[in-house]
Amino acid sequence: MAQLWGGRFTKETDQLVYNFNASISFDKKLYRQDIEGSIAHVVMLAKQGILTTEEKDAVIKGLTSIREELEDGTLEITEEYEDIHSFVEAKLIERVGEAGKKLHTGRSRNDQVALDMRLYTRAEILEIDLLLKDLLKELLSLMENNLETYMPGFTHLQKAQPVTLAHHLGAYFEMFKRDRERLKDIYSRMNYCPLGAGALAGTTYPLDRNYTASLLGFEGPTLNSMDSVSDRDYLIEFLAAMSTIMMHLSRFCEEIILWNSNEYRFIELDDTYSTGSSIMPQKKNPDIAELVRGKTGRVYGTLVSLLTTMKGIPLAYNKDMQEDKELTFDAIDTVKGCLALFTGMLKTTKFNKEIMAKSAMNGFTNATDAADYLVGKGVPFRDAHGIIGKLVLYCIEKQTGIENLTLEELKAVSPVFEADVYEAVSLKTCVEKRLTLGAPGSEAMKEVIGLGKKYLESEWAKTSDSICF
């Protein structure tokens, strides 16, 4: 059992206790961040005269060789070590001797792991942002190509008013755009360096924390050493943001599942994103959409778990906080996988435009426009509402739509109707005359699409998080 703290103890740790306490089975994922942070730390130690230039060069050479061998597979992380920090430091000492023992000067595992998680989380925020951007690009492309793809809009899952597929997809564009903005905010708040906080009370060594922060691409150092090692707010925020992303994906998947059903037939999923039944040969199941919907609960669980872990922890560091890693790693992997698969599924989906348009007409989605037509003829809206309600009831009895009634039938309900009513309640008119910003009319949608393009051309994230060591 390779550990960094044996001097105070006279007995070996029980193997079960050691296994329960160890974190290397999952924190080995942080090896790049651990080495990157160690290189920055040793560069700063040399700048401050705490290490010699020779010692610094030896340590950097050793750390770089460990990283290269881990990445090419010639070195393996084994579980005889308690954590990734123990592994890296032990291998370094094996390679460079006494100089390696000085690496941990002015540093604790508490601020070390706090740094590693921030570096890892920061990079993953950028990865998820790129996946969201790819999804937004696909949505914008679909919006441009479906300005006149008419479909019913729904409230209470009941047909309400006609919209376009461009407008419907535009709602999700706004949702995922907000998701990106949340990630941007989290990135900004968390981008401060905890290294130099020590175990909880800083250090007596003359560290230059501003320099270390700048080497690693942070805005600056954290300002309270106790908070530095015990803060997990940024992970809770990140898990909350990922939960919101999954909620948006899940809502979209629910609609994909409905639209794919025989009752709707709005879409046809590509074979590459569908599965069949082992017994029913006619089946083509929306399994990807269902799995994304299902995995939403998994990500929610990580958020609730970490909130519960953190709620009763006194300052400063406590071992409970080790629970943050597996939860966050799993949530990140889940969200990234779901975003990539969902975008691929959306790209290959066929939209049945004629069926969507027919559905928009077969549900009295033009009833509000018929009422507005009467208002335009001088009828008070409340009276117009009642007239159209009677007209809908008549149509239900006749199993037809308002647009299919003769002018005589319309006048029998209200003499105000004239021949121009047919144009007023046509699907195209119902959509196109809605031109306020944010409405489904094509001119309004073109303006929104233009704004969407400008948004996607702007960048907030850095392409590189730190200097290249």
- Oligomer category: single chain
Reported for the largest beta sheet, the result is: 2 strands, antiparallel
Strand line-up in the sheet with most strands: 1-2
Count, helices: 20
Q: What is the structural class?
A: mainly alpha
Helix content: 55-70%
Rg result: 30 Å
**What distance lies between the first and last C-alpha atoms, to the nearest angstrom?**
31 Å
Sketch the topology as an H/E string, one letter per element: HHHHHHHEEHEHEHHEHHEHHHHHHH
Which spans of ≥5 residues are poorly predicted at pLDDT below 50? none
Shape: elongated
What is the mean predicted local confidence, pLDDT? 92
Tell me how many strands there are: 6
Strand content: under 5%
Short structural description:
It is built from 20 helices and 6 strands. The chain has 469 residues and is mostly helical. Strands 1-2 form a two-stranded antiparallel ribbon.
Please name the defining characteristics of this protein.
single chain, 469 residues, mainly alpha, two-stranded parallel sheet, 6 strands, 4% strand, elongated
Describe this structure in words.
By secondary structure, this protein is mainly alpha-helical. The chain is 61% helix and 4% strand. It has 20 helices and 6 strands. It has helices at 15-21, 24-27, 31-47, 53-72, 84-96, 98-101, 109-144, 165-190, 209-215, 225-230, 233-259, 287-310, 324-347, 353-361, 367-376, 381-398, 407-413, 421-424, 427-432, 442-457; strands at 150-155, 158-164, 192-193, 220-221, 267-268, 350-351. Strands 1-2 form a two-stranded antiparallel ribbon. Strands 3-4 form a two-stranded parallel ribbon. Strands 5-6 form a two-stranded antiparallel sheet. Strand 3, helix 9 (209-215) and strand 4 form a beta-alpha-beta unit. The longest helix has 36 residues, at 109-144. The two termini are 31 Å apart.
